[in-house]
Design goal:
three-stranded parallel sheet, globular
C-alpha cells in the first residue's frame, strides 16, 4: 500500500483529481475542554467539492475504467441525496463523462445548483432524503432501459467505496497521529468511511474502538428503524456491505 503523498502539492497538479486526499487533521481544543481524551477532526472540506465523497468517486470511477466496466462514451448514472452526487458529477466532468443523478425532489436548492454547475443532469423522484429508496428504484428503471449505455457507481453497495478509505483516509489518520489512536467516531451514511478506516486501523492496532453515530429518529443500525430526520450531514441510508469483521458500536 503506497504511503500518503503529503508532498504531492509542492508541485502543480496535472488534474484537480490530484488534489483529493491528504487533508489536515486538526486538534479540537476548545470543544474538548474538560475532556480527558485528546480529540482530532479530519478536515475533509479541503477536498475539491468539500466532502470526503471525492475520495470514493475518484477511486470507484478510476477502478471501473481499469476493469473495463466504464468506457468512453458511456454515461455515469448514480443515486444521491447530495454530497455523493456532487462528487460524482465533479469527477465525471473532469474525466469527460456525461453524468445523470437521480435524487429526491425535496433536497435543498443549493445541492441541485451545485450538481448542475458540474454538468450533471438531474432526475427527481417524490419525497425527501428518507425516500432514497424511490430514487434507487428509478435509477434501476433508467439503467434497465439501456444497460450498455449506463455505468452505475452504486455507492451503497460498491466495495470500492470502503476500499477508497482503506487505501487513503485510514493510512493518513494513522500516520498523522503517529499510530496513537484509541477510537474513531463518524456519522453513519453508506458506511464506506467507517468501514474502510476502521478496517485499516484495526489491522494496525486491534484495540482501536469504532463508533458509528446515527440520527435518533432514524436508528437504522441500532434498532433497525427507519424514518425522516432533520439533520443533513448524516445519511439515512443502509450501511455499505463492506467486508468488515470488526465490531462497531452505535451512538444515537
Amino acid at each position: 500500500m503506497p504511503a500518503p503523498a503529503w508532498d504531492a502539492l509542492r508541485r502543480p497538479c496535472s488534474s484537480l483529481l490530484d488534489a483529493i486526499g491528504c487533508t489536515p487533521l486538526v486538534q479540537l481544543s476548545r470543544v474538548s475542554a474538560g475532556v480527558k481524551a485528546t480529540l482530532f477532526a479530519k478536515v475533509e472540506w479541503y477536498s475539491p467539492t468539500g466532502s470526503l465523497k471525492d475520495r470514493i468517486y475518484a477511486h470507484m470511477i478510476r477502478t471501473a475504467e481499469e476493469r473495463g466496466a466504464l468506457r468512453p462514451g458511456m454515461t455515469i448514472l448514480e443515486c444521491s441525496t447530495g454530497n455523493a452526487g456532487i462528487a460524482c458529477a465533479f469527477v465525471a466532468a473532469v474525466k469527460g463523462y456525461r453524468c445523470v443523478v437521480v435524487m429526491p425532489e425535496g433536497m435543498s436548492e443549493e445541492r441541485k445548483k451545485l450538481l448542475r454547475a458540474y454538468g450533471a443532469e438531474l432526475v427527481f423522484t417524490p419525497g425527501g432524503e428518507s425516500d432514497v429508496d424511490l430514487a434507487l428504484a428509478r435509477l434501476e428503471e433508467i439503467r434497465a432501459a439501456n444497460p450498455e449505455q449506463y455505468w452505475v457507481p452504486g455507492q451503497f453497495t460498491n466495495p470500492d467505496n470502503p476500499e477508497a478509505h482503506y487505501l487513503s483516509s485510514g493510512p493518513e489518520i494513522w500516520e498523522q497521529l503517529g499510530g496513537r489512536v484509541d477510537a474513531v467516531i463518524a456519522s453513519q451514511g453508506t458506511g464506506g468511511w467507517l468501514s474502510g478506516v476502521g478496517r485499516y486501523l484495526r489491522e494496525q492496532l486491534p484495540a482501536v474502538r469504532i463508533y458509528a453515530v446515527e440520527p435518533a429518529e432514524c436508528p437504522l443500525l441500532s434498532r433497525r428503524g427507519w424514518g425522516p430526520r432533520t439533520a443533513s450531514r448524516a445519511s439515512a441510508t443502509a450501511s455499505c456491505p463492506a467486508p468488515s469483521t470488526w465490531p462497531c458500536s452505535t451512538v444515537w
